[in-house]
Specification:
49% of the residues are buried. Strand 9, helix 4 and strand 10 form a beta-alpha-beta unit. This protein starts with a strand and ends with a strand. The chain has 2 domains: 155 residues, Medium-chain alcohol dehydrogenases, catalytic domain (Quinone Oxidoreductase, Chain A, domain 1, Alpha-Beta Complex); 151 residues, NAD(P)-binding Rossmann-like Domain (Rossmann fold, 3-Layer(aba) Sandwich). The longest helix has 15 residues. The protein has 11 helices and 16 strands. Helix 3 packs across helix 4. By secondary structure, it is of the alpha/beta class. The strands form 3 sheets. Strands 3, 5, 6, 7, 8, 15 and 16 form a 7-stranded mixed β-sheet that branches.
Length: 333
């Protein structure tokens, strides 16, 4: 089958199309013909080697974590799906990839595609949906009446997380550029800061949680807008020792992560704020719950641009520019 792969880590990862053999299914796996693959920033970061100590791939490796498609074959122990089912899934950190003609998907990470979404829309959801769900519902326990700061509200995670937070009854603050103010307000943002004209830390206050989506000093600055007892969930780092322990990484990495996260943890502690780093995990049951919100149109996909399969490399380059409004998707069928 044809797949978009990278052959090595570093500045020249040799990203391109390769012929990859179809492997036999394990008893708990599905083979899915991929109709669309959603892209995420980490798809560009993995070949660079940024997460090489944490994520292990057998090279050459197929890129991509989000997919939507049709089941063509099931393993002997699969009970929830059958050939012909339309599904969507996140396969991040499972040793497989999504930007390919076919993908192997463990049964426990897949969910039926919402009938009201096409394959492109469905493929845009898994990573951002699970990230927002696990951050806001699992870690923060966000509830009605609380305030959450979600910077970069017009991005892939931001557009979904704003809608989920509003569904949970929270008040949402965000940052965006002038051209995207209307978009984030339409998604439900209550306090919108145009980062080109204002500094959010001088405008916002009294927040219960921050979803860290932007690199640089945004997370440190956001501490000042939080109440005591609140929480920062960072998607962009730095990783902490608790993250290393949860992934059963070695003691050296746990020490290193503890070291590089020491400054942000110290600053947070002064304000009685908890800091944690999050890698979203694939979870079909959560994806099924998200599917119900999509079917009820409580949350709607936001898609910036769709690229054909043969231009998947260009799609990654476009995403890397950092200006997408919502998600970038590769369409295979």
């Amino acid at each position: 089958m044809k797949a978009l792969t990278f052959k090595r880590y570093g500045k020249s990862p040799e990203i391109g199309f390769s012929e990859v053999p179809l492997r036999a299914l394990k008893p708990d796996e599905l083979r899915v013909q991929v109709y669309a693959a959603g892209l995420n920033p980490i798809d560009n970061m993995i070949p660079s080697g940024t997460f090489k100590p944490i994520l292990r791939f057998q090279l050459p490796a197929t890129l991509g974590s989000d997919l939507a498609g049709v089941v063509t074959e099931v393993g002997s122990r699969v009970t929830r799906f059958k050939p012909g089912d339309a599904v969507f899934a996140n396969v991040f950190d499972l040793g497989t990839g999504a930007i390919a003609e076919f993908a192997v998907v463990p049964e426990h990470v897949a969910a039926l595609k919402p009938a009201n979404l096409d394959f492109v829309q469905a493929a845009s959801i898994p990573m951002v949906g699970l990230t927002a769900w696990q951050a806001l519902k699992e870690r923060v326990g966000l509830r009605a009446g609380q305030k959450v700061f979600i910077p970069a509200g017009s991005g892939g995670v931001g557009t979904f997380a704003i809608q989920l937070a509003k569904h949970l009854g929270a008040e949402v603050g965000t940052t965006t550029s002038t051209s995207n103010v209307e978009l984030v307000r339409r998604l439900g943002a209550d306090e919108v800061v145009d980062y080109k004209t204002q500094a959010f830390e001088t405008v916002l206050s009294g927040y219960d949680a921050v979803l860290g989506t932007v690199r640089g000093d945004v997370i440190e600055k956001s501490i000042s807008i939080l109440k005591p007892g609140s929480m920062i969930i960072s998607l962009v780092g730095p990783p902490d020792a608790a993250f290393a322990q949860a992934r059963r990484l070695n003691a050296v990495l746990a020490f290193v992560f503890g070291l590089i996260s020491r400054r942000i943890r110290r600053l947070a502690k002064k304000r009685d704020v908890t800091y944690a780093f999050l890698f979203a995990r694939p979870d079909g049951a959560q994806l099924a719950e998200i599917s119900e919100l999509l079917k009820a149109e409580r949350i709607q996909p936001v898609i910036d641009k769709v690229f054909p399969f043969e231009h998947a490399k260009e799609a990654l380059a476009y995403l890397a520019q950092g200006h997408a409004r919502g998600k970038v998707v590769v369409k295979l069928r």
